[in-house]
Amino acid sequence: MDNITHSVVGLGFGELVQRSLPPEADPARHQTRHRLLLTACALASNFPDLDLVFTRLAPAPLGYLLHHRGHTHTLLYLLPQAMLLLALLWALWPNARALLRESRAARRGLLLALAAGFLLHLGMDFMNNYGVHPFYPFSGAWYFGDMVYIIEPVFWVAFGVPLAMAAPSRRMRIVLLSVLPVVLLYVTMHGYLGWASFDALMALGGAVAALRFMHMHSRRALLLALGVALAFVGVQASASYKARQAVTAALVLQDPQARVLDVALTAFPSQPLCWSFTSIESDGKTYQLRRGHLSLAPALLPPRECPAALTADAAQEMAGTVPGVLVSGSWQGDVAALRARAAADCQLAAWLRFARMPAVDADQASDLRFASTPRGNFTTLLLAPKPECPYSVPAWGMPRADLLGAAQ
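Now predict its structure.
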């Protein structure tokens, strides 16, 4: 997820932990604990992304692909990160240090805030199609949630509204509550969000705000936010499963001889009916990648009416297959050639530890999951005739080990 979403959710959980604990006897200490728990949970929710400093360990794009969401995004390495963050808070915050020495509730709250923040980061990153490998070094396998867009306004609204209403000054509350609908309106007008989704988000924000207003000193609005977020993730997971079934069925009807190896799905923001996909299928000798998008309810919401900024260009419906599945393009490669190139080219072999949908030409390789991102395909690797082998290549599993066979 993006760091704004990580921060908003982290702050929301920090506020929920604070309101779930008994108050401190002294108002000043209570305020210190409030600030400490929000700060700790928000920092923990972003801390693993400090691995961006390691992206210079390998030339672009390998540095980013192999080291972002790398070791700091594994369960084993969350513990030293938590200890480091705890040490920094202890060393740099004298009032918090004094509070933690004397208050058992503050110590318990801080541990809960840190654990929630770090686990939230890993869990939220899992939910999109970039993936994580949380069990390294015991297993380097990638896990892809394929269920929530990397920037999700539902989380902004659900947690952002009660947080904004808890701001200390009236002016700040007004500013924060005004910014959110303006941002949502902007992304809707630019085609990233549908108008139905905009209306639903505004209704959600109104409901959370009303509950927060009626229960100013309770945690009910935050529990509602948590319930909405969990329900939304559940809906998205179910919709992702159905979208994968629809794409797989369409591919099998198109070519009954091919074996569908994988379907990578990209959700649309706050819209469980619309999905983009990249698929890979193989007959053993060749493999084919296809890109497109679909609607799970084409009679209610035709796929061409999904938010325009996130739909593939020039999409066409696959003739004689599942209604609502549109394909914008395809790419075909040779399995034996890919295996031979991977065995001979150390840069390509390193790149294949990330690539889930590899399109490898004579001079470049691209992961087609990201062919239509706003900054272009950041995964594209230019293949040199005599490549220099990158050092410090982590042992992540190859997402396409099923295709590469012994070449991995």
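The longest strand covers residues 271-282.
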